[in-house]
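Quiz preparation item.
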């Protein structure tokens, strides 16, 4: 799937074989419950509602002290949640499927991004996915990338067997800028926007235009043990993040400024452009749609991202978000 280093799922799989309170106007409860949420990558526009929830006090008004944990050497949210060192984490939905099939006992409780962000980002002039035949395509080394490339090309009548795939790690933008690859699996709202901001026009082939259902790209996960022990705190935290989504939609400028600050040397114009791109994809109320997820499960198995169809009842917990 996308090339951004959003999930260290390979490493993790090797290592691991508050009822909703009042609105933002309510007084802060005297005792706050600590909840740690591990990000999937360095702070970026996708994370804006989480940071807004803390900045605006939506967490504290619901009895939660939400602590945002950024990745260290690599994204480790799955491991942190599975071992109880974080109560929540962000995860790509396909990596959730891989974790479920490797017996990692985590469950998705909400959707942050409610639409696919995955795409093949190609040099301008490629025109369509099947035109990547006999060209060089960069893949990250994650197991889902070749399956994703095959799915998009095959849906357009292309033969992925003719493609020369090279492992480029997480240098998608640089490889495209230098012309060393014809395309990469990436996120259209991140690498795609970054390339366009740098004056490097690209062709973007979004996965939902090539057979994929409108699945939620980024989900919020917890462990079953944490959910059993702290269900009320999980619900309260999700309510705070949902309020953060609403605030980011209404006030994108301060949200972008906060991400620039959290990310350190981020380009303000790039962050603003990426936030503008992702805002329409936030899941309303963070809700999970069982019908869409069933369709996603069939598609994920069909195209080979996972070996067998994900068990929706096992991988997702419904009813923890808004009504």
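Solution:
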């Amino acid at each position: 799937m996308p090339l951004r280093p959003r999930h260290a799922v390979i490493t993790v799989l090797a290592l691991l074989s508050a009822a909703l309170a009042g609105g933002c106007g309510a007084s802060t409860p005297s005792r706050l419950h600590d909840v740690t949420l591990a990000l999937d990558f360095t702070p970026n526009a996708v994370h804006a509602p989480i940071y807004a929830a803390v900045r605006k006090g939506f967490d504290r008004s619901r009895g939660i002290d939400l602590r945002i944990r950024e990745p260290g050497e690599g994204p480790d949210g799955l491991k942190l949640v599975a071992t109880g060192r974080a109560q929540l984490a962000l995860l790509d939905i396909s990596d959730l499927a891989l974790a479920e099939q490797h017996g990692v006992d985590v469950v998705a409780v909400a959707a942050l991004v409610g639409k696919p962000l995955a795409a093949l980002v190609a040099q301008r002039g490629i025109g369509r996915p099947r035109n990547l035949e006999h060209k060089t395509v960069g893949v990250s080394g994650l197991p889902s990338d070749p399956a994703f490339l095959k799915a998009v090309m095959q849906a357009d009548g292309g033969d992925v067997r003719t493609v020369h795939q090279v492992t480029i790690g997480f240098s998608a933008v640089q490889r495209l800028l230098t012309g060393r690859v014809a395309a990469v699996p990436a996120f259209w709202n991140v690498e795609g926007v970054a390339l366009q901001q740098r004056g490097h026009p690209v062709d973007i082939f979004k996965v939902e235009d090539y057979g994929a259902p409108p699945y939620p790209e980024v989900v919020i996960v917890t462990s079953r043990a944490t959910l059993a022990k702290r269900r009320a705190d999980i619900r309260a935290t999700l309510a705070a993040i949902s309020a953060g989504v609403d605030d980011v939609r209404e006030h994108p400028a301060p949200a972008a400024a906060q991400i620039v600050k959290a990310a350190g040397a981020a380009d303000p114009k790039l962050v603003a452009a990426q936030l503008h791109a992702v805002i329409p994809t936030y899941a309303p109320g963070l809700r999970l749609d069982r019908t869409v997820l069933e369709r996603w499960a069939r598609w994920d198995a069909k195209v080979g991202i996972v070996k067998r169809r994900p068990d929706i009842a096992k991988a997702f917990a419904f009813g923890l978000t808004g009504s």
